[in-house]
Amino acid sequence: MCYPLATGAYYNSIDLRDRDALKKIFDSTKFDAVIHFAGLKAVGESVEKPLLYYNNNIIGTIILLETMANYGCKKLVFSSSATVYGWPKEVPCTEVFPLCATNPYGRTKLMIEEICRDIHCGDSEWDIILLRYFNPVGAHPSGFIGEDPRGIPNNLMPFVQQVAVGRRPALTVYGNDYSTKDGTGVRDYIHVVDLADGHIAAVEKLFQGGSKTGCQVYNLGTGKGTSVLEMVAAFEKASGKKIPLVMAGRRPGDCETVYASTSKAEKELNWKAKYGIEEMCRDQWNWASKNPWGYGKPDESTNPST
User: Fold this and answer.
1) Is 104 exposed, middle or buried (0-12, 13-18, 19+ CB in 10 A)?
2) Is the separation of the CB atoms in 128 and 213 below 8 Å?
3) What is the spatial distance between Cα 173 and Cα 188, in angstroms, rounded to a whole number?
4) pLDDT in tens, 233-266
5) Helices and strands, number each (H, E), in the chain
6) What is the maximum alpha-carbon separation in the chain?
7) Do residues 222 and 152 lie in contact, with contact meaning Cβ atoms separated by under 8 Å?
């Protein structure tokens, strides 16, 4: 967790589970609202290390909420996830769909959502917005801020990016026999800039006209599904690079098609995604080509060409 000062400087990160460190932050700065992003997010890791995820994500959130309440700060925007829909039986996913997370990471998001609903039920002074992200991708258009995952990427776009700059030899596509237009899985990808704008809209909603928000949930996506092969083709076009593919079997737990209904966010937050996969790939490549090794340094044994 980092937080801004009026001067524009930033404190070092702290662990939300460190109650004393969090208290010092709230002692030193008055907050009107909190946007809660802090959490572990790798699905595979959560399956291998469930206690790590429950401890970090849930306990950290409880301590944050307790601290906020102690200081009279009762406006929250929480970073949830489309994983709370589990394997939806139909698409697009609306906010009233049944919730059923299928892995420990998703269950932490779902549990935190339930905690937030219970908090508001017990104390109507709380105003909470739960934002269910679909698949954030891309980078800031400047090319100076982008995604640099540690180890093997868990998501499609950073993996494609690393293949394009020569850090990895090929992209493994898990499943090409789905009942989709090209046999590969379909997801709703959203540009990170659109996602950021969604948070601004949510905060504005919390303070809109002095009215009470209650505890509301909104999908943040484009409302359109894009297959793995469609995204690869768009990235090849944006980068001018060929992305070698290795076809593999389906991964357990992967859904065939998931994309969002965004009508509620469009109506109530006055927000709608502006960018498509072309802009997502363009900005991702701009970042990757400027920063082929992300924020780190190259392996001595590998020499990426951009």
Assistant:
1) buried
2) yes
3) 17
4) 999 999 999 999 999 999 877 889 999 999 999 9
5) 10, 10
6) 59
7) no
List, in sequence order, every residue forming a beta bridge with 36; answer none if it has no partner.
78
- The 3-state secondary structure of 38-86, one letter per residue: CCCCCHHHHHHCHHHHHHHHHHHHHHHHHHHHHCCCCEEEEEEEHHHHC
CA distance 38 to 193: 19
**What letter would DSSP give residue 217?**
E
Task: Look up residue 139 and give its two tokens.
Answer: 């980078």
Contacts of 252 (CB under 8 A, 6+ apart): none
Q: Which residue has the tokens 């020499």?
A: 303
Task: Give the pLDDT of residue 306.
Answer: 38
What is the token pair recorded at 216? 């509301």
Burial, 186: exposed, middle or buried (Cβ in 10 Å; 0-12, 13-18, 19+)?
buried
- Indicate the helix (H) or strand (E) that contains 246: strand 245-248
Residues acting as catalytic residues: 105
Q: Pairing state of beta strands 226-227 and 186-187?
A: antiparallel
User: Looking at this protein, which amino acid is placed at residue 9?
Assistant: A
Are 128 and 215 within 8 A, CB to CB? yes
